Amino acid sequence: MFTPTPIPAGLERVGLIATDVDHTLFTEAGELPDGIDARLDQLRELGVTFAIASGRQLGTLRQVFPQYVDNSVLISDNGGSIAECGSIVYQAELPISEVRELVALTRRFGGIGIILTPKVAYVEARHAEECEEFFHRFYLDIEWVDDLMAVDDVADKYTIYYPNHDAKRALDEQWAPELTGRYELALGDVMWVDVAPKGVSKGSALERLGELCGIDVADMLAFGDTFNDAQMLATVGFGFMMANSSPGMERYGRYVAPSNEDFGVVQVMDEVIAAKRNQLRS
């Protein structure tokens, strides 16, 4: 567990707040902090855009956060898709030939491959019995197919699931040596290896949003806890890793927020609200 840092100066500049979901905004019981919606209303009144930034697919985020669909930004698939106020404004593309190469590597390395689009997750039917209930926590619409090699939909991310929680070993020993430099690779907790097109990450999604909304990344604040959040925290001016973050995240988070169990996201939001109100009064 990391020790929270003092609140930095300059929070009155913040024009966008982005947060990861699991182990960051959500408690370990999968619950939102009390009072989060009231804080978001206050932030919007103060001109601050709110963004959810997750490795989950867009359809799942819309289901989990229906109250945010029409007034916030949803960054899904680790930056593979961006929806602003309900409309998709960006979607990355993995060419079918590259997806099939990744499927072939999965069969060589092990793990369970998942082809992701903003709406559908494609998984081979032979894994349904062991994975269906668990996968529906992350993917709203799953299409069980006989062979991933036959899928010809436009993907924005490819994920490999490791039920034995050895994703870091697989990333370090297999995927990174094979693919570094060609794709963006990210570790999602202990069970996921994510493969995205080169240049696609939560950090690049915030850069794209900044161009669309006219907000400098130096005036953005972000929360995250693990390595698929690393580029996002490194990109923004106010990058807060959570106190419960994975070891090694201190290389990317400039500041440390209280843990998800202590509602650290809300605590820092309150500081932003106070700073912006003080600026209006001065």
* CATH architecture identity of the largest domain: 3-Layer(aba) Sandwich
Query: What is the CATH class of the largest domain?
Result: Alpha Beta
Number of domains: 2
Unreliable residue runs: none
Quaternary assembly = single chain
Number of strands: 14
Remind me, CATH topology of the largest domain?
A: Rossmann fold
- The average pLDDT score comes to 93
Let me know the largest β-sheet.
8 strands, mixed
Which strand order does the major sheet show?
Answer: 5-4-3-2-1-12-13-14
Per CATH, the superfamily of the largest domain is: HAD superfamily/HAD-like
Rg (CA only): 18 Å
> Helices and strands: which structural class?
alpha/beta
In DSSP terms (H or I, runs of 4 or more residues), the helix count works out at 9
Overall helicity: 25-40%
